[in-house]
Every structure is written in structure tokens, then in C-alpha cells.
Amino acid sequence: MTADRTTLLTRAAHxxxxxxxxxxxxxxxxxxxxxxxxxxxxxxxxEGRIVDFFCPRKGLAVEIDGDTHRPELDAIRDxxxxxxxxxxTLRFSNEDVMTNIDGVLEELLIELNALPDRWxxxxxxxxxxxxxxxxxx
Length: 137
Prior knowledge:
The protein is α+β, with helices and mostly antiparallel strands.
């Protein structure tokens, strides 16, 4: 069963405030478009799930998997996300991030550069709702 949107947004906000150590380390390398100029969002809600990082321009979800992840279920969910939205998913283990951050960043940059842009222009689309960060006018 999928959680409702409000629950997902609340959970995502909590996860942004209290990231795991591997997520925190990778975010330090991705934030402010540091990796090849690619913009990322943390704990993005997409298709009833929360992905660790998301590059909207490329349609790439990045997941950092710990010991509790179930690869066979993750693969099904990744295929569903691709079928529903055309988004790709790239997965790394906690250990990869903690012991080989340079390798993770290199692999991520190769994937980002290989994917086509999903729209033209120099900016990503703005948030579509107040829950996603759009300010009321």
C-alpha cells in the first residue's frame, strides 16, 4: 500500500533533516550543482515513493542502499518508476559511498552525461506546490 502524499512529504522532510551518514556525505558532493553542474533534490517524492536524490533535468534517481534493502523488490520498483515516468535509477551501497566516494561520483557523472536532458533551458522547473517549496504570493 502506498502512503498518501502528505505522509510522504512529511517523511521526506524528516529524512532531509536526519540523513544517514552516507546520504550526508554524498549530498555534500551533489549540493549546489557541484557535480558537473547537475542540480539535485534530496528525498524527492516520485510516484508514491521517496528517492534519496533526484536530478530532474536528467530524470535520474539515485538511491543509497543499506543492509535493509531488498534488491529484488528494489529492481521491481525501479522498473515501475521507469515505466511510469521514464526515470532511471542508479544505486550505490552505503559502503561504496563511505569507502569510495570518488568512484561513486565518477560513475554518477558518467551516467548523468550519457542521459539526454528532459527539457531545454538553463533552469529546472520550479516546485509545483507549497508542499514542494513554492512560496505563496
